[in-house]
Amino acid sequence: MSFSERMLKIDRRIIFLVIGVCTLLPLLYPVGLPIRISPEVRSIYDYIEALPERSIFLLSIDFDPASKPELHPQAIALLRHAFRKNLRVVAMTLWVSGTGMADQLLKQVAAEMGKENGQDYVFLGWSPGGPAVIINMGQDLYTAFPSDYGGKTTKGLSVLDGVNSLKDVTYAISLGAGNPGVEAWYVYGKDKYKFELGGGCTGVIAPGLYPLLRSGQINGLIGGLRGAAEYESLIGQKGRAVAGMDAQSATHLAIIVLVAICNLFYFSLRQQQGRSEVQR
Amino acid sequence: MDTTILGAWMATGLTLFIFSFLYKDNPLFKLAEHLYVGVSVGYTIVKAYDTVVVHLIVKPIVEQGEIALLIPVAIGLMMLTRYMPKAAWMSRYAFAFIVGLGSGLAIPRTISSFILKQIEDTVRPLLAMAGGDGLTFSMNLLNPASNLNAIIILVGVTSVLFYFFFSIEHSGPGKMVARTGIVFLMIAFGAAFGYTVMARMSLLIGRLTDLIEFSDSSYGRPTLWLVILTIGALVVLGRRSANSTSQPE
Predict the structure, then answer these.
(1) Rounded to an integer, what distance in angstroms lies between the CA atom of residue A149 and that of residue A123?
(2) CB B112 to CB A224 under 8 A?
(3) N or C: which end of chain A has fewer CB within 10 A?
(4) Which phi-psi region, left, alpha or beta, contains residue A216 (left: φ > 0; alpha: ψ -120 to 50)?
């Protein structure tokens, strides 16, 4: 068996180990590679930056703990920015399995920024129906969510002063890991009730959302951990996403090198086989 | 024991048990996998029961006398008649209601959002009018609204659509157009795969970040102890399975 053949049949656990080491080392010893801000992330930041104080900012946390590493840092960065701008934050989720996590993250950031529940923010929790909830909220927010996650009646909460439906929302962002998520918010929300919409998503679904971005159906897109790192850089509060960027670059480099080496061995093997056939 | 510390030990242990599958399939991985499925389903059932049955049905009917809610409750209950063969016909009405309502809501909105809006964005002018100066052509590839990008999108969309048009043979000039379509498809698949790799690596980074955090003495160093425990368990399990296969029947 030639060297190329042996390398192509290498135990895949060695590749796992290489990827693991390439991820772990930059996390233990960060280099601090520069992060370039993409226009799609900047446009969300600029839009929130331009909102007047006490505007209604709706954050739909449409993911569960399975997508936490990518979307949790996005949610934290967005909430920090919204609270710093003194926006009224209305949070909710369309994913029942994400309710506990969403409540915890909202409480954590609100406590850090000194914001009060019911006054500066509210977590509406989850309501059944998926996309139908968005339509329901567009007609009457209090029918879709008669009480918040803590059981308090939503009607009369000072954070919702002057808010009757989605038409009164100034800016909405859906952080989606699938369906229902960003697309559902556009189809059943923005397109019908005419509020501005931004999106945040996992890396897997980001390519599918770029057509919505180009056509102006969403005004910005935060894609995966990379997008979260860009947003953390923009607000000047670096967190877990920025910390993970060195590791992300290192693993990407490792994968590129592995793909190149694999191709090298593949073509060298083909060449060897071609030569041996000619000799025969 | 503090719940944070208990949570750290649980999270670390389950992460390591799941990662142990990378070495080979083993009972520790199975335990973590089944626990994940069970906890997810249990959590969803409890949350759905509390939100839907308690807060959206029972409380409004009992406390506020909203009798109209009995209509959706009846439709919902009709679905459960599928489990009773004699009354299963009633579930058809419930399903017909759901399918009819769902289609009525989804079809016009989806056509408007994903077909008409996307066609509108694809059919952009290839040359732009710039005030009184006449026609201009912007070459900036980084600007999604540039004329050059409009041409690339036009070529991409038409060639990919042609590639999926099977009523005529892809030969002569048609072959070239179909080949161009394949190139665009490959670029799209490559971009999607690149993003997928990034997403999967992000998940790994998230778990490793937690493992590093939980190696701190304030948590009792669960990472260190549980790595030793997991490796030890894998060695013992490996030896046991080796012994059982080597023993003659």
Answers:
(1) 6
(2) no
(3) C
(4) left
Instruction: Please give the Cα distance from B227 to A241 (Å, whole number).
Output: 25
Q: Tokens 């994913």 belong to which residue?
A: A95
CA distance B229 to B17: 10
d(CA A109, CA A90): 14
- Please count the CA atoms within 13 angstroms of the CA of A87 that sit on its side-chain side: 26
Confidence (pTM) = 0.91
Q: Do B208 and A146 touch (CB under 8 A)?
A: no
Residue in A closest to B207 by C-alpha: A69
Mean pLDDT of B92-102: 94
Hey, which residues 159-218 in chain A have their CB within 8 Å of chain B?
A: 183, 186-188, 191-192, 202-204, 206-208, 211, 213-217
ipTM, two decimals, is 0.91
Concatenated DSSP letters for B184-240? Answer: HHHHHHHHHHHHHHHHHHHHHHHHHHHHHHTTSGGGT-HHHHHHHHHHHHHHHHHHH
Asked if residue B30 lies in contact with residue B241, where contact means CB atoms within 8 angstroms, the answer is no
The whole-angstrom distance between residue B212's C-alpha and the CA centroid of its chain comes to 27
How do beta strands A88-93 and A56-62 pair? parallel
Q: Say yes or no for a CB contact (<8 Å) between A206 and B60.
A: no
User: Partners of A88 in the beta sheet?
Assistant: A56
- Cβ contact (<8 Å) for B202 and A252? no
CA distance B29 to B33: 6
- What average pLDDT score do residues B56-61 get? 92
Give me the mean pLDDT over the B2-30 stretch: 94
